[in-house]
Specification:
This protein is 20% helix and 34% strand. By secondary structure, it is α+β, with helices and mostly antiparallel strands. It is elongated, with a radius of gyration of 35 Å. The protein starts with a helix and ends in a 10-residue tail after the last helix. The strands form eight sheets. It has an eight-stranded mixed beta sheet with strand order 27-26-34-30-35-32-33-31. A five-stranded mixed beta sheet has the order 1-4-5-6-7, with no helix packed on it. Strands 2-11-12-13 form a four-stranded antiparallel beta sheet, with no helix packed on it. Strand 21 and strand 22 form a beta hairpin.
Length: 505
Amino acid sequence: MILKANNQLLFLLVLVLPFILSFQTYPSAGLEFLTPGQSISGNQTLSSGGGIFELGFFTPGNSTKYYIGIWYKKLPTPNKTIVWVANRNNPVSSPYNSQLKLSEEGNLVLLSQNKTQIWSSNSTSKESNSTVALLLDNGNFLIRVNSSSSDIIWQSFDHPSNTWLPGGKVGYNKLKHESQILTSWRSVENPATSKFSVEVEMNGTSHILLWNRSKQYWSSGEWTGKVFRNVPEIQLNFYITNLTYISNENESYFTYEAAFPSALTRFVIDVTGQLRQYVWGANYTRWSLFWTQPPQPCEVHGFCGVFSKCSNLGAPLCSCMEGFEPTVAKDWEMEDHTDGCARKIPLRCGNDTFSRLPNTRFPDDSVSLRTGSSAECESACLRNCSCTGYAYDSVDGCFVWEGDLVNLQQLTKDDNSGKDFHVRVSASEESTIITKAKRKSKTGWIILGALGGFSTFLGIFLVIFLVAKQRRERGSEFEAQGDSLSSACMAFEFRRHDWSPIVLQ
């Protein structure tokens, strides 16, 4: 009997033990460095020597995807301030089934559950087992030869994400023929590379903001040795010091230092495409925005994507033109407008019409045509199946647009500089737009009428209430005085205000 019970217990342990062992625990204490063969996984982290920065797995916002990143360790914020991301375009589903490992050859690799390589530093040391990976107090994550602190094999400062930290680089590596640029996140919950970037102009020293690495929409101007021509206020920026341009046979780049040890500062290419400087002072409880270029999001090329309208009036900044809808609705919910808007109904050349957008600043890349009227301008656009919009003005003439429409701005009512723009839509879509407009107008009149009726009723009710109240007050006065009817009438006429006399019977 005992033997049978022991056999059952042994059988149960064989079944349950592998399941129990699968729940490994991972210490959360931060390591100081990684040596060949070592790795971090789960909630393990690397900490810089002074405890300023930390590296490990993180998930942005409400996302369920995980990334290897670097953040400020001690800031009292509910969300981590991420300054660098390794696998920004290739997230993993679980940190406990993944690991960041330093190989014997000096290569950092991020491995998934099935040991598939997700990300790599692509670095190699001359000797096996001779390297160490560590995080510095300036936020630089590097691999160097263990016996020499100056023999750096790879460093994150050569591969920035969206943040330029003090001591970091923005420039060009001549040996590897690689640009050191900042690229924005797609949204606050998606660190994947977007279309906005900060880089140093080739064959020049200007910092420029680019859309899709091709369309420039802002420039700092040339470096004079002290300031950028278009950013003279940088001399008054007391949070940074030693802004320097370094150029030698190996690389050319800009770098800077923080002016005060007690104040943190960083430059970020934001999801809006704006270059921003944030600071965190001694008694701050959150980051403070110190400097921004361009000043308004609508000045950023392609901020709202194609076939959209940008408005600085407030939320939402971006909306689709009439007849269009978000290309990826889920991205728009996260304020990622990269892919813009798409037509609800495809065009049928020869059976199209136009929807009027009043008081706008026109999109980019127009072509001027010689026409004598708005009708001729419209006809010219209709005859060209590639024409997607037109505008006509008696002074400036006819302008037409082909292909995707980008950078149309919706101006405020008090801004009289705007003009009508006509976007090409399907004829059936135009009838839908007109029907919606009529329905909206009808609904508006119904609401207006209902409010008017209610206001009238409320006014009548208040008049009746006040008159009744006044009568009660008069009645009490008459009883108190015990006077004759004529005296009471005289007293009433003296006390009445702007309403008609009430005849007492």
